[in-house]
């Protein structure tokens, strides 16, 4: 059983939500907490990033916080609810940094089937698996 579980969410893999949550709840210690993290890579990987206004990014972050809050209230029992964070940066680096900062025991993250681009660049989940200091469960 794990006391501190991190769920990095991207909302692109909603079809995996039930499996991710089920895994987290099964592996969560009775006094454990489940933390939610969304990493917004738009400032890093988007060609239009220099043109994003501060207001646009704040609105985007607020919408994501609302999604995380809804997710937390819908899927995570109150006794297991931990932190909810929206961060900006490189996805895998940010996940690893937050896991270290929050003393996470396990990261549970969704992953799609690999496409041609992941064979060349590698996926976020594979990079997290290779470099995490804690257990990692990748759900497909």
From TrEMBL:
InterPro entries: Rossmann-like_a/b/a_fold, Universal_stress_UspA, UspA. Residues 1-140 form the UspA domain. Transmembrane segments: none annotated. It comes from the Bacteria. PANTHER family: STRESS RESPONSE PROTEIN NHAX, UNIVERSAL STRESS PROTEIN UP12. Belongs to the universal stress protein A family. This is Universal stress protein. The lineage of its organism: Bacteria, Pseudomonadati, Pseudomonadota, Gammaproteobacteria, Aeromonadales.
């Amino acid at each position: 059983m794990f006391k501190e579980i991190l769920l990095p969410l991207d909302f692109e893999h909603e079809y995996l939500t039930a499996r991710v949550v089920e895994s987290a709840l099964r592996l969560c210690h009775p006094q454990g907490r489940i933390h939610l993290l969304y990493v917004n890579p738009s400032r890093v990987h988007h060609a239009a990033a220099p043109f994003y206004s501060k207001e646009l990014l704040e609105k985007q972050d607020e919408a994501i916080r609302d999604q995380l809050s809804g997710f937390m209230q819908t899927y995570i029992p109150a006794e297991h609810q931990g932190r909810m964070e929206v961060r900006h940066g490189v996805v895998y680096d940010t996940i690893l940094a937050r896991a270290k900062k929050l003393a996470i025991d396990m990261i549970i993250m969704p992953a799609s089937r690999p496409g041609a681009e992941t064979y060349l660049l590698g996926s976020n989940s594979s990079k997290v698996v290779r470099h995490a200091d804690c257990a990692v469960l990748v759900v497909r």
